[in-house]
Amino acid sequence: MGSPIPTLLPPYSQDVAPFDYHLFRSMAHGLADQHFRSYEEVKNWIDSWIASKDDQFFRHGIRTLPERWEKVVAQRWTIL
Q1: Where are the domains of the chain?
Q2: 1 alpha carbon, distance to own chain's centre
């Protein structure tokens, strides 16, 4: 058996999925102090939260993708 292949990035990192960062960072702020008692409450909250965001919110997240990907690529080379 050979040596294990080294992992270039940690198993979890905010930088691994930069396309999610805009969405989930904003969602995390909305989730502060929320307490759910059922799956239905969670689903309803998520549906309501998404509906409350205008097109500009999602456009901004999409427009920042190239910059975020550049940061991920640059960080990957520093890890190597």
Answers
A1: 18-28+35-79
A2: 37
> What's the token pair of residue 39?
């799956």
Under a CB-based contact definition with an 8 Å cutoff, are residues 9 and 79 in contact?
yes
The reported pTM is: 0.57
Q: Is the pLDDT of residue 18 over 60?
A: no
Specify the higher pLDDT residue, 77 or 46.
Answer: 46
Burial class (CB in 10 A: 0-12, 13-18, 19+), 10: exposed
Q: Are 30 and 49 in contact (CB under 8 A)?
A: yes
